[in-house]
Predict the 3D structure of the following.
Amino acid sequence: MTFRWLTPADGVDDYRPSARLQGKVSHSERIGSMYLLRLRIPGWQTAGAGQFAMLQAGASSCFLPRAFSIHEEMLPAPGDPEQAYEVGFLLAPVGPGTEELSELQVGDAAGVLGPLGTGFDLELLSGGSRLVVVAGGVGAAPFPLLLERLAAASPRPREILLLLGFRDGVQAEAVHVFSEPVTRLRRLGIPTHVELISEAGDTGRSGLVTELLREELSAGDRLVVCGAHAMCEAVWDVCLDFLEQTEPVAEGAGNAIPAWFSLEAGMACGTGSCQGCVIEIADGSLAKVCRQGPVFSGAEAFGHRRHPCALPEKEG
Amino acid sequence: MAPSLDVDLTVRLGPLFLAHPLINASGTLDLFETADSLGAGRGEQLLHHPPVAAYVPKTVTLGLRRGNSPPRVVETPAGMLNSIGLPNAGLEAFIDRDLDRILALPRPVIFNLGGFAPEEFALGAERLRLALEQRLGSPQTVWEKAGLELNVSCPNVRSGCMQIGASADETEATVRGVAAVWEGLLAVKLTPNVTDAVPVAQAAVEAGATAISLVNTFKGLVLDRLTLNPYLGGTTGGLSGPAIKPLALRFCWEVAAAVEVPIIGMGGVASVEDVIDYLAVGASAVAVGASAFRDPWLYARLARGLGSQLAHRGLSLDELTGCAHRGGALGL
């Protein structure tokens, strides 16, 4: 009988069944005030656009992982014995969990649980005359993958308009994450326009992304939206206003604006167990963002609710 | 997914037979939601080889409960505070929609029943027993498959669940009513929000409890950094995670010394060392809660790690269990 317990120095037990995948940082890049983190993840299964993953730095001082939209995904290289995907995440360091992840270096480990949740329905997005992408700040995260998937889809949207709102010029540097997908869509002959606006006004136009939307929105548009909850509510208000204004002229249902929102909530598990991430949706029920979402239709999430105080209109 | 290291890790909790001591704490693992989330391959593996030795579903109450308003969870140093509020569709809907698939799992089940008055628990237990008899037939089959845990300790509902568990008299009345209709494993899950859990545990055993689960979460408060208002929708919440482990271990130590029935120990279990500690203070089974949010296979890994450690030390599970009350592991 020995008088000590096993330690890692005794050799690690190889019994490691896990739903949590071991990612390794293959690329980390600062883009303005955000970070693009790419992980090489053996065992990853193809994600749908709009799905998310729970991430945690390998050596973490946080108890829980954090939820991130899947930003980009590259198939395993031919001949890769591990068949590892490379999966990218766009993150803003806003607290201890996101700060740890933003400080990871190439080769560092990160735990990954995913892909999880209900993402965008590509078929629904491809109908309509135009797809309008509304993103606020790090809410840009899910859209490069969505645009890549739409470029490969059939049918594809006929036209795409990106309305990108940022806090300031530094945050607006994140516009670069759209370079590749936008170029690809244009090469495919899909007219793709990008409009920027920032609250500080130090890059291009000054104001909120909802102002751009108010000017641009037209009948037949379909919307995908991601950003702060207040921004999402304000976007939905613009949609409701638009409906009210145009209802008398246009004919019935053709005028409704189908919009899908990628929402967020604090989560412990990301897999439907903890019931911590619920939000109140339009029918008054509480929906788990991790299972029913993170992508909700506007009607499902907000219904006819209006949010007059959600986001004050900016003056001047 | 039973560990196989030639160490006998099997545990008996009354008529329930567990392949190892690791189970989930109620409300922290929904096997079906998790399996759906993980997709076809990994999800099926989870249901065909559950990583827990017995499955403890989330608390069910007689009536439907919406649960508390969001936000419901927030991270804290080495843990988290939750205010979920026992959302569930009610016992009848649970029996209609969930019971069959839960019974189809290749594991014993410890159902968790919540309530706000002693008679609610008795009604619920009797209804559940009837439903189980309809599905499983003979009483022996029922009691070998299904145990019951009474949640008299939820800190997140206004209507008084935790008030039952804070009182020896109320707990005794509650357990007595259930024991009259439930012959299987009857565990009572106690609150740590009392000075001393021993009188409550003794009252529960006196009234017919055949196991004691402890602890539920510690009532706590987190403020919103910006507004300095309470952060959670339910104002206060229950603290779990490694932060509470020494606090919870003390309750297990005291209660295990005072009652003869098996203890299901829980509170902040995250590592094999934690499992060993709970067993050493006298727990027969160990439940993992918040730490398994990161990975639903944690229970199975901890069971395997326990087997490795026991094999290395040349200890049996019996020798380890309760050894802290008998001079510790060196005296064996």
Observations:
- Chain B touches chain A through 56 residues (CB under 8 Å).
- Chain B has a mean pLDDT of 95.
- Residues 11-68+86-219+243-331 of chain B form a domain with the TIM Barrel fold (CATH 3.20.20.70).
- Chain B is about 35% helix and 15% strand.
